[in-house]
Structure formats: C-alpha cells, structure tokens
Amino acid sequence: MKDAFSQLPTIVKDRSQEMDISPIGLVLYGSSVEVEDPRDVDILVVVRNDLSPVEKRKLRSAIGLEIRSRLELAKDLDIRIRTFEEFRKMTPLHLGIVQGYRILDDTNSILQTILSNARQLSDEWKTKQVQMADGSWVIFVKGKVVNDEKIEYSQELF
C-alpha cells in the first residue's frame, strides 16, 4: 500500500493542472502513515489558488476518481482541499495531522514549515487526540474539546 502512495503527487498535479489550479503540496496523514493496512486514506492538498466550494468539490472528485482507478483503492478516501491562506492559520485539522503525517510533495518546504510550527504549538498546548468507540476522533487543547470548524487559539503558522 505504501508504495502506491508514491503515485499521489503525479495524480494531484495532473488533475489540478487540468483545472488551472496550482498545488503547493500534498500530505498523507492519519492511519495511512501509522499502520501497514490502514482502514482509510487521509490526504490533504494545499493549493495556491483561491477556490470556491464548488471548485474544491470538483478537484476533490477528480483526484478521488483518479486515485481509485489508478491505485485500485477500496478503502475510504478522505481528501481535504485547502488554499494556502486557509492552511497557514492554525485549525483543529493541523492538530490532527501533526499526530502522524508524511509529506509527499512540498513546493519550497512551505508545508514542512507550517506543520513544524503546528507541532510546536500542539506540544505547547498539550494537545491530545482521543479515538472514540465509534471510530471518530476528539481533539483536546488545554483541556477543552475543539471542533473541525474553528479554534479559539487561532494563530498564523507561516
């Protein structure tokens, strides 16, 4: 499975370029990098362009279809598309990613810088990620549960 992930940067670049979108980087995270046979595949694509929700859905669909057909992936696939402006500010998504990730593509080491800064904040905040019985995850920051929408400790990372 891990060897198949080496094809992901090409897939993302090809599908993005077809839509005149410039990808900055690609991150694999979660169980995809932690275990040999993950239950799902979590992918983050960061782009330069300012995209509407419709454009994000189209890109997510195009990338997902290509991954499923080329890699014959039968697992759940979670693809998150973020613009650089969205990703450079700390969110609960960062806190989840820094628990375990692998950068597959990174223009000018931008994602590495952002995720290193996020890891440092996560450590300072004593962040904990707990898996619930239903398989969902809850993130605690300074003893408080945070959700996937907003984080009151929002801070620029780049």
Provide a brief overview of the structure:
The termini are far apart. Helix 1 packs across helix 3. The protein has 6 helices and 7 strands, in the order αβαβαβααβαβββ.
Provide an overview of this structure.
The protein has a single domain (2-146), classed as Beta Polymerase, domain 2. It is globular, with a radius of gyration of 15 Å. It contains 6 helices and 7 strands; from the N terminus they run αβαβαβααβαβββ. The strands form 2 sheets. The chain has a 4-stranded mixed β-sheet with strand order 3-2-1-4, sandwiched between helices. A 3-stranded antiparallel β-sheet has the order 5-6-7. α1 packs across α3 (53-71). With 158 residues, the protein is α+β, with helices and mostly antiparallel strands. The longest helix is centred in the middle third of the chain and has 19 residues, at 53-71. Helices cover 37% and strands 26% of the residues. The N and C termini lie far apart (32 Å). A hairpin with a 2-residue loop joins β6 (137-141) and β7.
| Arrangement of strands in the largest sheet | 3-2-1-4
- Principal-axis shape: globular
CATH superfamily: Beta Polymerase, domain 2
Strand content: 25-35%
Task: Specify the CATH class.
Answer: Alpha Beta
CATH topology: Beta Polymerase, domain 2
